[in-house]
Amino acid sequence: MMSEAALEEVSVLSSIYCGEGELKVRQQDAQDGLMVQINSSVGGERRLDVSLLFHLHPPYPLCPPAISVSSSSLSRTQCQDIRQKLLGQAAALPPEPMVHRLVERLQECVEVMEMCEELQRWSLQLQLTGRLLLGRCILVILLGARPSIKEFCRLLKTVKVDVDSSGRKCKERMMKVLIESPSSPSAGHGLQGFVVKSYESLPELSAAFQELNMTEIYQQILPSLSG
């Protein structure tokens, strides 16, 4: 039997996503629950059409919804990545109506994805390798010629890759260099390409630096991360 909370939530969602084709109820069944599709245009200057399908099983919201993500603007891998992030967010939320919060989270996921693509493009142009570590703090590790690293930092401060509280694209003015260190072939850093990696805790962040044989550098920047 469908929960009253789910039915009430769909009613509220219908008033929020009231544009033509924004919200569709795909299924309403006492045994299998509700399936609600929300079509949204998200991202920065390049607006992307993304469709989210939420399956609200009868125990919902005591259990999180199943989620599907599709988009003609994104690859299957990108859709799967967004889906995993939304499922993780849903599992972390308290057992209460959450669909609207997850749709809002979609905007953040796409913004981060676009920022990652921009940083990867710069690293390729400047012949840099590195890591983009996403978590409580966003960290960029770069390896390459010093002038190229300086140019990367200049781009980060002057090109609109961040988003302000109003959702408008803005420049990353809070960026600061935590440490500069010479590198040598004998250091054995495992940096290849420009890889994006997420972390949830300081131990996971420490493990990422350890994987790159940069434990000493991590220890040096740790006070800045803990402050």
TrEMBL record:
Q: Name one GO biological process term.
A: positive regulation of hypoxia-inducible factor-1alpha signaling pathway
A GO cellular component term found in this entry reads: cytoplasm
* InterPro entries per UniProt: RWD_dom, RWDD3, UBQ-conjugating_enzyme/RWD
Please indicate if the UniProt record lists Transmembrane as a keyword: no
> Which of UniProt's keywords are assigned here?
Cytoplasm, Nucleus
The portions of this protein that span the membrane are none
Q: Which SUPFAM superfamilies match?
A: UBC-like (SSF54495)
Major localization class = cytoplasm
Q: Where is the protein localized?
A: Cytoplasm; Nucleus
Which residues belong to any copy of the RWD domain? 8-113
- Organism superkingdom: Eukaryota
Q: Summarize the protein's role.
A: Enhancer of SUMO conjugation. Increases SUMO conjugation to proteins by promoting the: binding of E1 and E2 enzymes, thioester linkage between SUMO and ube2i/ubc9 and transfer of SUMO to specific target proteins which include hif1a, pias, nfkbia, nr3c1 and top1. Has no effect on ubiquitination.
The protein in question is named RWD domain-containing protein 3
The species is Champsocephalus gunnari (Mackerel icefish)
